[in-house]
Design brief:
The protein is an alpha/beta fold. Helices cover 39% and strands 24% of the residues. The chain has 2 domains: 3-248 and 454-477, Aldehyde Dehydrogenase, Chain A, domain 1 (3-Layer(aba) Sandwich), CATH 3.40.605.10; 253-435, Aldehyde Dehydrogenase, Chain A, domain 2. It has a 7-stranded mixed sheet, sandwiched between helices. Strands 10-9-8-11-12-22 form a 6-stranded mixed sheet, sandwiched between helices. Strand 18, helix 12 (376-379) and strand 19 (386-392) form a beta-alpha-beta unit. The chain is globular, with a radius of gyration of 23 Å. It binds nicotinamide-adenine-dinucleotide (NAD). Residues 145-150, 172, 174-175, 205-206, 209-210, 213, 224-226, 229, 232-233, 247-250, 281, 381, 383, 409, 454 line the site of nicotinamide-adenine-dinucleotide.
Length: 479
């Protein structure tokens, strides 16, 4: 089997080690063999990014536009194949994989345009004869560290703005999903990106990630992943006084009010809680339902759950693919036991390990009822196809419960009341609010991010990404 190598200074380079990329729908299927870098190779990648920085940060915007546009076009043209690779290595359904690949293409397309729309400001000085210019410049070498659950979209929404604004990159994807990461690096290299501008270093967080965090030559780090790793990343960045951006976990609430359209509410809950196997930072894991609709909602949700096919991610008719790996499956099962045991919740549906034609990490989506917001299953991020219903008296209690969490990424409400929808949009303590829509599922050209324990630093995506990927310069001129 061919080895997929790291990309360092424009050269495909073998790692000191390599690992198999395993299909979670069929553990006998090896997606490919991928290099694993060590600290020395990571430092070589950082050195290459540093060497490439002066030219790329001053490059003609038309050059950056052309590279990003070419990458966008190739990703779009190959979205079916890349979506299949994604489904095979991560376990999302084929439709979700293709959708995510298309989204990566849209993101590159957006930042191709942004490269041509860079502007600054001129401001009159309060001192006579002086002119002031405010401009944005690249931050420098950006370390990009990504999680396994969106293997093409998250790298895209970090790499595209980094390159657009003239930064050079050292990119470390999650160890479980090197396939999509390698494909993006390959596409960008062939799109004409100069050597060293994007370096791909696959491998372990404790080795490659640590080498990025320890290098004095990395000027900024953007990270998406778990809260514990995020805190460590922030602490290491503080040591180096370097810019950092973190996107982390969630425990997102979906409020369902008595006046909601039941079909809409159930479809938002099922999509938000279980699609992508519940492995989304924006998943609706807490379903907060008012008394008047509670029993009808639970009955309809269980009916909908019974119709979900859990199977091979790439098989026709599959709604829910496997969990990513044994470790995550163990975590999901542990929380299902906690819910039934120490929390004392009622497991109303699912939670069973499933066997299919191929050996994979299949889990029947689980729904808990009779839960309270103080239970561990409602406080801690599980990151699997597990959701809870929390019964509340009225809107006021629903809002209070929705906000009573250490997280603050996405927050949703299903209601036909303009009054409650408007109040919720103003008072939900979250970076993103959804009305009659699932908590997961966002557009690629507007800001993404959260509050409280979910995010740290400035927003990702859309024009707001410029806050992180650029640094502001104020120049005073006396002609
Ligand atoms: P993780 O924290 O285990 O790993 C994330 C990345 O950090 C990986 O590339 C990993 O190799 C690397 N890493 C691990 N240890 C490191 C270290 N010591 N130094 C540097 N890098 C290190 O997270 P995961 O399991 O890959 O992803 C799941 C988590 O990501 C969930 O908590 C989920 O909510 C979160 N997530 C958040 C968002 C968001 O935008 N808020 C989006 C997707 C996923």
């Amino acid at each position: 089997m061919d080895l997929h190598q790291n990309l360092i200074g424009g050269e495909w380079t073998e790692g000191p080690d390599a690992a198999d990329n395993i299909n979670p729908s069929d553990t006998g299927d090896i997606v490919g063999r991928y290099a694993r870098a060590d600290a020395a190779q990571t430092n070589a990648a950082i050195a290459a990014a540093k060497a490439a920085l002066p030219a790329w940060s001053r490059s003609n915007p038309a050059q950056r536009h052309a590279v990003l546009q070419a990458a966008a076009q190739e990703i779009m043209a190959r979205k079916a194949e890349l979506g299949d690779l994604l489904a095979r290595e991560e376990g999302k359904t084929l439709a979700e994989g293709i959708g995510e690949a298309a989204r990566a293409g849209q993101i590159f397309d957006f930042y191709a345009g942004e490269a041509l729309r860079l502007t600054g400001e001129t401001v009159p000085s309060i001192r006579p004869g002086i002119g002031i210019e405010i401009t944005r410049e690249a931050v420098g070498v950006v370390g990009i560290i990504t999680p396994w659950n969106f293997p093409i979209a998250i790298p895209a929404w970090k790499i595209a703005p980094a390159l657009c604004y003239g930064n050079t990159v050292v990119f470390k994807p999650a160890d479980l999903v090197p396939g999509c990461a390698w494909a993006i690096a390959d596409i960008l290299k062939r799109a004409g990106l100069p050597d060293g501008v994007l370096n791909l270093v696959m491998g372990r967080g404790s080795v490659v990630g640590e080498a990025i965090l320890s290098s004095p030559d990395v000027n900024a780090v953007t990270f998406t992943g778990s809260v514990d790793t995020g805190k460590h990343v922030a602490a290491k960045c503080a040591e180096h006084m370097r810019k950092v951006q973190l996107e982390m976990g969630g425990k997102n609430p979906l409020v369902v009010l008595d006046d909601a359209d039941l079909d809409t509410a159930v479809s938002c809950a099922i999509n938000g809680a279980y699609f992508s196997t519940g492995q989304r930072c924006t998943a609706s894991s807490r379903l907060i339902v008012t008394e008047g609709i509670h029993d009808r909602f639970v009955a309809a949700a269980i009916e909908a759950l019974q119709k979900l096919n859990v199977d091979d991610a790439r098989k026709d008719g599959t709604h829910i693919g496997p969990v990513i790996d044994q470790r995550q499956l163990d975590t999901d099962m542990k929380y299902i036991d906690i819910g039934r045991g120490e929390d004392g919740a009622k497991l109303a549906w699912g939670g069973e390990r499933l066997n299919r034609a191929t050996p994979g990490f299949y889990l029947q989506p689980a729904l808990f009822t009779e839960t309270s917001n103080s239970m561990r299953i409602n406080r801690e991020e599980i990151f699997g196809p597990v959701a809870s219903v929390i019964r509340v008296k009225d809107y006021d209690e629903a809002l209070a419960v929705a906000n009573d969490t250490p997280f603050g990424l996405s927050s949703g409400i299903c209601t036909t009341s303009l009054k409650y929808a408007t109040h919720f949009k103003r008072n939900a303590e979250a970076g993103m609010v959804m009305v009659n829509l699932p908590t997961a599922g966002v557009d690629p050209h507007v800001p993404f991010g959260g509050r409280k324990g979910s995010s740290y630093g400035s927003r990702e995506q859309g024009k707001y990404a410029a806050e992180f990927y650029t640094t502001v310069k104020t120049s005073y001129t006396l002609p």
